[in-house]
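::Encoded backbone::
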Amino acid sequence: MVEAAETAPSAPARIRLGLRENWQQFSLLVLINAFVGGMVGLERTLVPLIGSETFQLASTAAVTSFIVSFGIVKAFTNLISGQLADSWGRKKTLVLGWAVGLPVPFLIMWAPAWGWIVAANVLLGINQGLSWSMTVIMKVDLVGPRQRGLAVGLNEFAGYLAVGVTAFLTGYLATIYGLRPVPFYLGIGYAAAGLILSVALVRDTREHVALERRQHPRVESPLSFGDVFMRTSLTDRHLFAASQAGLVNNLNDGMSWGIFPLFFAAAGLGVERIGILKGIYPAIWGILQVVTGPLSDRWGRKGLIAAGMWVQAIGLFTVAGFDSFGWWLLGSVLLGLGTAMVYPCLLAAVSDAADPSWRARALSVYRFWRDLGYAIGALTAGLLAAIFGFAWTIAAIGALTFVSGVIVARLMQEQPR
């Protein structure tokens, strides 16, 4: 009956663009993306420690292998998510993502071997690539062109605040109950709630896309997926600048995910203090996106993105260059601040440059490159750490992040909205 109501001939007449006009669906999607982010937060503090302490993995590259599997699978899932959204529907793709993610906490809780953790992260990558992509795309569909920064800022706020809070909570629970299984009970609740809400209450937003195309027409030839891929990846300087910045942003995030817990543990920090350091970074990242997203609607995207990459670099240099909890806390705060300046603005910048007819595919290509950074960062960091040590590895990734900001400053262009 719900589907029939959505597709009835009179439905388009009730469709309107804007956050106020669609606040109920928008708020629901914000809540659902908090559950999506919580699924990633389960792993931020504990999984590297499970690898080194429970399964006695001596190689840093072996410990970070779960991030490599997650990043590669999420990247390629992102790549197809836009096509699925356009051809199959946003809601169905969101539900599929949650169905795939449901076994993840059980696999981590009960894993008898490290291979199970890697397999769980394959499923987690699919879950994130489908579910997080759909919450972004659907919010952008709902609000129209004037509030994209606000829309993606609220979306990423919910997701990454949940990452940070969950990273802290799992670290705290681990100090009381051990690394497994109790901290991962949170994930069971996240997955069940996300799936139930997506099935029962979410409505598709393709009619909003059709309305935007009627209200804001652009004269463009139809683009194939190959055209969109090349345009977003390479041939459009604005989209190329966004894609490389997204890749480097998640490259340093993938490095911090795998290397920071090992680096801090080697310095003698306990699980609870590691949880604080690992939680504060995504929490600040999440909270401040409520400010940076809408700020980019007023100030533009380019300046916030370039400056954010440079602030991230300073944060990484701070972590690498000092040897105390206070300095590491400051570095984590700067890393969170810089990422908050970058993350929603990149999504909004890609949405600005893409016609509604191929926007979902452009976002999926951008997110492919961005999340491939997880795998590249974890793999590179694991290899560099084995040769040069943790501190030099963190500093090298900081230098790469700074260069990425220079590329944004030189190549990105503000788009009319």
